[in-house]
Design brief:
alpha+beta; 15-stranded mixed beta sheet; 9 helices; 28% helix
């Protein structure tokens, strides 16, 4: 009987990544992926060091890698982001049911690892149909909002910034946090659990500023007599810039010029593509952006999974070393779990392949 094992990715597993047949990116639009190629991030995640690098977990059937999940720890905010799911091997057929079962097992393992590391929440965003969404829901991820992804390419010409436009200052953090509370529904606030540190700007080393590196996002505000009425963060990745924003209803009409002014201030006239995330509770902004030349390119459901609430343990989740009565549970997480004798679709496929091989040998 074939056995499914789930464990952290090892360096020796990297050649098997070439057999990936399906990749599902489920990154939260508010979280920009790393500029490193996927294989490099997986290699870094395989290094056994306690560093805030991406974590990669692998599902293997009879020691053959069949699926992976890529996660990014954010220890400063006690959260992990689910970035991508992959599946495929020489003997694994491209079947949604198989993907769902493998990804469910991987997410269960990742949730346990995140909780043991001190994370309180895991976040992901994906479409509302397909094996990725079903696997997330099967592991107790709960949807709490939708986000539209809107894009715009570089437009040459002068940009007139809105009145009150300026760069964010350290003393603005409290006001931006109050703006977030003012424009964000309470249910979303409870799910995201953001603190003022979200809007703090870390100081960039002098040597990075001298060579022109933009590792830190550029942040701007619209400051009026009534205080800060809008906030924008522009995060540069290659030729793309990801925009996160907040604005009062009275300043929704200023958002297109606010975005363009912030991008020009950050990149100058460098060609780029801007990606703007618009939550469903501010859907009116989509129409405002479209009238200014932006285009909607996608829609995603954002989900959260809490690690500090009681969870149902599935009967098929069994630790490798079963403790005898009276033994103390060791500290830490087991290095991997095994799922044996459960007859899931992926294992059934592997068993059918072995039966076919045996039949051919007889003849």
């Amino acid at each position: 009987m074939a056995t499914l094992a789930v464990r952290p990715l090892h360096v020796r597993d990297l050649p098997s990544l070439g057999f990936v047949r399906r990749r599902c990116d489920i990154v939260d639009p508010r979280s920009m992926p790393s500029t490193l190629p996927v294989v490099q991030r997986q290699l870094l995640g395989a290094v056994p060091l306690d560093l805030p690098l991406d974590r990669v977990f692998a599902a293997l059937i009879d020691d053959e890698l069949c699926a992976t999940v890529l996660m990014r720890p954010r220890p400063e905010s006690f959260r992990w982001n689910v970035l991508a799911l992959t599946a495929g091997s020489p003997r694994l057929a491209a079947d949604d049911d198989v993907y769902e079962e493998l990804w469910t097992a991987l997410l269960e393992y990742g949730i346990r690892a995140a909780g043991e590391s001190g994370a309180k929440r895991l976040f992901a965003a994906t479409g509302d149909d397909g094996p990725a969404y079903r696997a997330l829901r099967a592991t107790a991820f709960e949807p709490y909002t939708r986000r539209f992804v809107v894009t715009s390419t570089h437009q040459a010409g002068a940009v007139e910034p809105p009145d009150g436009f300026r760069r964010q200052e350290p003393s603005d953090v409290w006001s931006i946090h109050q703006l977030y509370h003012h424009v964000t529904p309470r249910s979303v606030q409870a799910a995201e659990a953001l603190t003022s540190s979200t809007w703090e700007q870390a100081r960039q080393p002098v040597w990075k500023r001298l060579i022109g590196r933009r590792d830190q996002p550029s942040c701007y505000v619209i400051d009026t007599r009534d205080g800060i009425q809008a906030y924008l963060r522009a995060e540069v990745r290659g030729h793309d810039v990801v925009i996160d924003w907040l604005a009062t209803p009275e300043h929704i009409g200023d958002i297109p010029s606010f975005i363009r002014a912030g991008v020009v201030e950050t990149l100058g006239e460098t060609p780029h593509t801007a990606y703007v995330s618009v939550p469903e509770y501010a859907v009116d902004v989509v129409g405002v952006l479209e009238r200014s030349g932006f285009q909607v390119v996608g829609e995603r459901i954002v989900l959260v999974r809490h690690t500090t609430v009681p969870a149902i343990v599935h009967p098929r989740l069994v630790p490798v070393n079963v403790l005898e009565a009276g033994e103390r549970v060791p500290r830490g997480v087991p290095s991997y779990y095994r799922y044996g004798g459960i007859g899931i679709a992926a294992i059934q496929q592997f068993n059918e392949v072995e039966v076919d091989r045996m039949e051919r040998r007889k003849h």
